[in-house]
Specification:
The longest helix is centred in the middle third of the chain and has 75 residues, at 121-195. The protein starts with 9 loop residues before the first helix and ends with a strand. It has 2 domains: 10-155, no CATH class; 246-352, Histidine kinase-like ATPase, C-terminal domain (Heat Shock Protein 90, 2-Layer Sandwich), CATH 3.30.565. It is of the alpha+beta class and 352 residues long. 65% of the residues lie in helices and 10% in strands.
């Protein structure tokens, strides 16, 4: 696995530029100046090659070029370039190796100054200060790099979780909307067939309601994403189209349904839709009562039927599970009271 790109890439180049300018300002002989400049530029070239993918093999090249620069230096600033080695090693080998190389550089400089003689305590002190600053900067940069990497990983995890939640939401909506419409179409067509010879008007109305449900289902299948984002139909529309001679529906609404936030309104609509579907499909209910309260920005919904109740396989089916998940995301609660005679579904979503 390749090493990560090095942060604060400008530090080695700034040091090389400063040392090169100071060395040439000392006006060395032409051959010495050429060797010095070649060494410094070569060191800068190594840093350029190493800027995006730190490689261990270039450490030896740095050391060799530092010896070249030291051999031709007349300014006495080569010691500053020794900081480049531990600074670069911090990103490739880690803190301990960088610190060891920094101390090794200090020992090498001390030995070199001892050989050439003279007072060089200030040079060693400046090297020590520069080393501390460089390694501190490297530590901060590596910490920021790791933090950024962890943040990107966390964002990918969140994106994956959001995608999973979106898939679950889409599955819930397909079940709630398309399942409801298909059930309504089946019931209305059965009703039309049953009343075809006895009550032509009732049969005609059943066929019209089936056509409405079919058109609505086709719209949602054709463009499900748009349908999910659009504001849902009102509870009045739902109750009007779901009611028939087999299942009477009463509706009482307090407050303004259209003033609700779209996600809350969608959750309430889907919950009522699922409750009606279960009452018709599984409960064989003859009457359903819907009571909704949308005052003060909150929402509560109570759907009660007089059917036979939900059998065990349907008490925690996909529809009710989807209802709970949808409402839970909005900070609300769902309770289902199941009895031998009827089911009561209660949804409560707090105001924002």
């Amino acid at each position: 696995m390749p090493a990560p790109a090095r942060p604060v890439q400008w530090v080695p180049f700034l040091l090389c530029a400063a040392v090169l300018a100071a060395g040439l300002a000392a006006r060395p002989p032409l051959a010495q100046a050429a060797g010095f400049a070649a060494g410094v530029l070569g060191l800068a070239g190594v840093e350029w090659l190493d800027r995006h993918r730190p490689r261990r093999v270039l450490l030896a090249a740095r050391l060799a070029l530092l010896l070249v620069v030291a051999a031709f230096d007349r300014s006495g600033l080569t010691g500053a370039l020794f900081i480049v080695v531990p600074f670069g090693a911090y990103f490739t080998f880690g803190r301990r190796v960088a610190l060891a190389l920094g101390l090794g550089g200090a020992a090498a400089l001390a030995g070199y100054y001892a050989l050439i003689g003279g007072e060089h305590r200030s040079d060693l002190l400046m090297y020590a200060v520069g080393l501390v600053l460089a390694l501190s900067m490297a530590a901060v940069a590596v910490g920021e790099l790791h933090a950024r990497t962890e943040l990107e990983a966390a964002m990918r995890d969140v994106a994956g979780l959001s995608a999973a939640q979106e898939r679950n939401r889409l599955a819930r909506d397909i079940h709630d909307s398309l399942g409801h419409h298909l059930t309504a179409i089946t019931v209305q067509l059965e009703k039309a067939e049953a009343f075809r010879d006895r009550d032509a008007a009732a049969a005609h109305r059943a066929i019209a309601d089936a056509r409405w449900s079919a058109r609505r289902a086709l719209e949602e299948v054709r463009d499900s994403v748009r349908a999910l984002r659009d504001a849902p139909l009102s509870l009045h529309d739902l109750a009007r189209h779901a009611a028939d001679e087999r299942m009477r529906i009463s509706l009482a609404v307090d407050g303004d349904e259209e003033a609700l936030d779209p996600p809350v309104r969608m959750a309430v609509y889907r919950a009522a839709q699922e409750a009606l579907t279960n009452a018709r499909r599984h409960g064989a209910a003859g009457a359903v009562s819907i009571v909704a309260d949308f005052r003060a920005g909150a929402a509560s919904l109570v759907v009660a039927d007089d059917g036979v109740g939900l059998a065990e396989p349907h008490r925690d089916g996909f529809g009710l599970q989807g209802m709970r998940e949808r409402v839970r995301l909005l900070g609300g609660t769902v309770s289902v009271a199941n009895a031998d005679r009827g089911v009561t579904v209660t949804v409560r979503i707090p105001g924002g």
